[in-house]
Amino acid sequence: MRSDPIDKILLNPINRFINNSTSSGIVLFATAVIAMIIANSPLQDAYHHFWEHTFSIGFNEYVVSKSLHHWINDGLMSIFFFVIGLELKREIMMGELSKPKNAILPIFAGLGGMAVPALLYLVLNSSGESSAGWGIPMATDIAFALGILYMLGDRVPVSLKVFLTVLAIVDDLGAVLVIALFYTSDISMMSLLFGGGFLVILIVANLLGVRNTIFYAVVGIGGLWMAFLLSGVHATVAGVLAALTIPANVKIQDKKFVEKMNALTNKFERSTPNNVSLLTYEQLHTVDRIRFYAKAALTPLQQLEHSMAPLVAFVVMPIFAIANAGITFSGDFAQNMVSNVSLGVMLGLVLGKFIGIVAVSKILVKFKLAALPAGLKWRHIYGIGILAGVGFTMSLFITDLAFINVEHILQAKIGIFVASTIAGISGFMILRKA
Length: 434
Hints:
The chain has 434 residues and is an all-alpha fold. It has 2 domains: 24-183 and 234-249 and 299-433, Na+/H+ antiporter like fold (Up-down Bundle), CATH 1.20.1530; 254-296. Helices cover 72% and strands 3% of the residues. The protein has 18 helices and 2 strands. A hairpin with a 2-residue loop joins β1 (54-59) and β2. The model has no long low-confidence stretch (mean pLDDT 84).
């Protein structure tokens, strides 16, 4: 097949970058750094003011008005949670979560890595408004953590990457439940009932065999997401629920698909060429049938996950980072860093994650309720325990849900950045030596 110059010069390098496992982490880190640079430059006032511009959608008296910052956190992040929901459903059906025996260790390690950080935070912030931040150190940033792990290449076994992936998925699911149960505003039961109705429509459509992704997008966004947005339950929960209704079955089974493809490719080969670049009518019809059967052999769930993963990694997450990572460091930075909120977040992420993951893993293995995956040593588990303290994206997200006080938000963000930096570097070094 002839390769055009534009492919060699531009498209192929871009595709290689997008498909590289470390690329999303690099982009996320770069946008966070850019946000911090702008927030501490002469443009800082313009930067903070920009995200407060109000946008409205609706008609007549049915209008929803929110700041750009809220649209990003409630809207764009719903796409992120939608993809997490797709990954979760896939893992349950055919991944590590489909094998209970193999999944016990990372699942319970993930739960331990959520509970201990929250408890450590509450030790320092047991009352008052600051106590609402207990959910901040519970989260692990899967993009950053996996990006750092993949930088190590063959130095770490594949089973360790699987362990961290399952742990992070459990962590993300736990974060969704925490957001749904504890970080919601006053609930509108009418809107929630409407949301439940749209969820039932999506489930019934799945059971009836509807596979059109546009249908699920219209009902999921225009119905379920909007209803949750108005209900008081955080709209990102709708993203996960919508993802779980996406069909995961095929129209044509493997054996039949191979038979059809062989027949169609043979038919295309036998067709009389017209000696020009355009296809004949017969060839065009054959290619169209190949496209039809290729689409029928894919599940809508995998189609969406495959197509949306780059969108989330290289558009949604960088936009979220640049909108939320801009901390303006004032003269009282040191004072904010030693505040109870900041210390609670740092202790939770760096120490709490490590204690929770390692202690639960030790208990399960000691009592033979689970075993270390093949090729893993305890040094690997120690490294993952530290690396899981990189809580960047999800921790920032929960910060804005937990606090109204600007000072508490600043303190929490400082704690997140300091802890994530310590955890990322320390985890990398430990796993590199392991």
